[in-house]
User: Which sequence fits this backbone?
């Protein structure tokens, strides 16, 4: 499906969708959003690119196989979950928050890193599934 | 601080599972990491057991959200014992898996999923929240489904579909029960539920909910009449996988039944009668199924069902003697059943078949290995002083004291059938003269293996055999543990006080 309209549109949409996915990821703690939805939006960006420019080009764009994102995301999430043990010996998964909020992003806590981990896992898993299906089709 | 270290075995397995993903293509590194990691996890679980034994019930609230709002992790003696047994079995199976599972399967992250499964088991034993228990069950199902279908052989997929469909159905029934329970009480914390359930006016609805849990966990632990998924699927994956399945997966169902029917739905005479009659039917159908099987792995699968009946019936009697018997049987069963499937894997490696019609002469050619394999086989039967004898004694005593002669008879019948089945296996496979077995050229027989590979086959079986010998000869200690667990689970006030301190 190589229409020029889709191809041109996807070139613009890819960065916009990726930016939007980061926005969704960051607003997620108190408002609708979060790592899971953000990850899905980001993987949609790459799927759209694969539709327009072909799977091979998208793979070149990604450089690494998306499956590699999964262990990294998992590591980040687990570290965020067990970090309270090392900071003050609180039970695991206790939310730790930095005292001063950072401009634009807001207050930073361990939940953010957990969500970034989820974000990476979702991108990795959904792209691996979709790429595998479209390769075998 | 030290209280939350009860989930250390769980965390070690989680970290292992993720760490192994980084070595996705390097199978040799995965094997080394998996075995050494399982060893560390086993040491951690021993530490957890000693800690709980000395300091009583350990609890902590994940995320610092107070109970009943947050997720509570509770390490009582029952949970700690099961975590310890999980650690022991997982260590043995990881050694066995490293040599017996073929490369084509290991390439797709076998060890990673294996440790994820062990993590799920640990979590299910340690959680104090009903919904969290459901989540751990899902983790167990998903990873066991990957393990059972990895490799993609035709009969394997057939077994996997049966396994998955019925376990999924069980999860759905469990979830429905959870929904009703939450609607009735407004909480899913087990300790909180134990106080709120008796206060509900509409006890008929409580009965129905209890029944939903009975059906859900009953399917998972392969209780009559919905047990047929077990013999249809457990003989299809590699022996290492079926070892961990038979040792631990059905026992999680039994654990959940014990937990729910001693803590939440207590003194429910309808459920008790139901448990007892289901137990008798389970023992009967599993035993009859075992006698007619020709394949030893299928035969062992039916024996699993038969022996699940022993435990369910003991739970139904609901006295302290019976509970101690159930716990003792659970401890004995996990070790022995894991070992039995490892033995069947070794037999396959020796003779390239597990069919009784074609086996024979193992004793003649491998006398030492045969003696080793005799230990788990006869421990299962319960020839005194081996490990199966003592818990059956408690169960029989409890059945007799309660005047429940049906259950009494069923336990005797079950033991007799087990004896017949195992004697049949012993006579056919070990004593009878061997037939010439032709195996395909690709098959690597035991004698052609390198010596360290032979060790990897034998060491886990020796290790588990030693554990079951200890359970048999050190029965006094195990009885002490079981009695303490029995008093603990029958006294729900202590559990409540430990969670809401």
Assistant:
């Amino acid at each position: 499906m190589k229409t020029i309209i889709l191809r041109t549109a996807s070139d613009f949409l890819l960065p916009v969708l990726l930016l939007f996915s980061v926005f969704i990821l960051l607003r997620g703690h108190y408002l609708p959003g979060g790592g899971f939805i953000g990850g899905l939006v980001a993987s949609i960006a790459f799927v759209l690119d694969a539709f327009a420019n072909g799977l091979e080009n998208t793979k070149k764009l990604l450089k690494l196989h998306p499956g590699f994102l999964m262990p990294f995301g998992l590591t980040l999430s687990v570290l965020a979950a067990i970090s309270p043990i090392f900071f003050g010996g609180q039970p695991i998964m206790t939310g730790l928050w930095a005292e001063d909020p950072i401009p634009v992003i807001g207050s930073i806590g361990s939940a953010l890193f957990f969500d970034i981990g989820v974000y990476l896992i979702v991108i990795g898993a959904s792209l691996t599934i979709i790429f595998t299906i479209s390769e075998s089709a | 601080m030290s209280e939350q270290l009860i989930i250390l075995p769980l965390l070690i397995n989680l970290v292992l599972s993720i760490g192994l993903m980084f070595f996705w293509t390097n199978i040799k590194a995965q094997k080394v990491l998996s075995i050494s990691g399982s060893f560390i996890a086993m040491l951690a679980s021993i530490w957890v057991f000693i800690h709980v034994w000395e300091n009583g019930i350990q609890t902590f609230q994940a995320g610092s959200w107070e109970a009943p709002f947050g997720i509570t992790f509770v390490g009582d003696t029952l949970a700690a014992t099961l975590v310890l047994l999980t650690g022991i079995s997982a260590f043995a199976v990881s050694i066995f898996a490293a040599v017996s599972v073929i490369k084509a399967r290991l390439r797709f992250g076998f060890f990673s999923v294996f440790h994820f499964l062990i993590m799920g088991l640990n979590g299910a034993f340690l959680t104090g929240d009903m919904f969290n228990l459901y989540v751990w069950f899902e983790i167990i199902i998903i990873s066991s489904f990957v393990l059972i279908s990895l490799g993609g052989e035709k009969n394997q997929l057939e077994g996997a579909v049966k396994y998955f469909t019925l376990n999924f159905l069980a999860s759905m029934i469990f979830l429905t029960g959870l929904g009703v329970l939450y609607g009735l009480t407004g909480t899913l914390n087990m300790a909180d539920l134990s106080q709120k359930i008796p206060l509900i006016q509409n006890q008929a609805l409580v009965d129905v909910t209890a029944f939903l849990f009975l059906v859900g966990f009953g399917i998972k632990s392969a209780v009559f009449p919905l047990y047929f998924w077990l013999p249809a699927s457990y003989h299809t994956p590699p022996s290492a996988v079926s070892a961990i399945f038979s040792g631990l997966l059905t026992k999680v169902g039994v654990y959940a039944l014990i937990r729910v029917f001693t803590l939440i739905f207590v003194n429910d005479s309808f459920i008790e009668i139901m448990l007892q009659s289901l137990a008798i039917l389970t023992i009967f159908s599993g035993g009859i199924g075992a006698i007619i099987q020709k394949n030893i792995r299928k035969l062992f699968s039916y024996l699993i069902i038969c022996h699940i009946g022993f435990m369910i019936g003991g739970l139904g009697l609901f006295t302290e003697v019976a509970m101690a018997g159930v716990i003792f049987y659970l401890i004995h069963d996990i070790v022995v059943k894991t070992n039995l499937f490892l033995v069947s894997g070794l037999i396959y490696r020796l003779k390239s078949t597990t069919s009784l019609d074609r086996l024979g002469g193992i004793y003649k050619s491998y006398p030492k290995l045969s003696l080793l394999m005799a230990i788990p086989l006869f421990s299962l039967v319960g020839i005194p002083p081996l490990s199966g004898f003592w818990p059956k004694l408690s169960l029989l005593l409890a059945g007799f004291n309660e005047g429940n002669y049906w259950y009494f008879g069923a336990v005797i019948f079950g033991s007799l059938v087990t004896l017949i089945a195992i004697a049949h296996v012993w006579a056919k496979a070990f004593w009878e003269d061997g037939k010439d077995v032709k195996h395909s050229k690709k098959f690597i027989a035991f004698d052609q293996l390198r010596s360290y590979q032979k060790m990897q086959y034998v060491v886990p079986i020796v290790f588990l055999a030693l554990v079951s010998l200890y359970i048999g000869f050190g029965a006094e200690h195990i009885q002490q543990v079981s009695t303490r667990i029995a008093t603990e689970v029958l006294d729900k006030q202590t559990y409540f006080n430990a969670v809401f301190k």
Notes: Helices of chain A lie at 4-26, 35-53, 55-62, 69-86, 110-136. DSSP finds five helices and no strands in chain A.
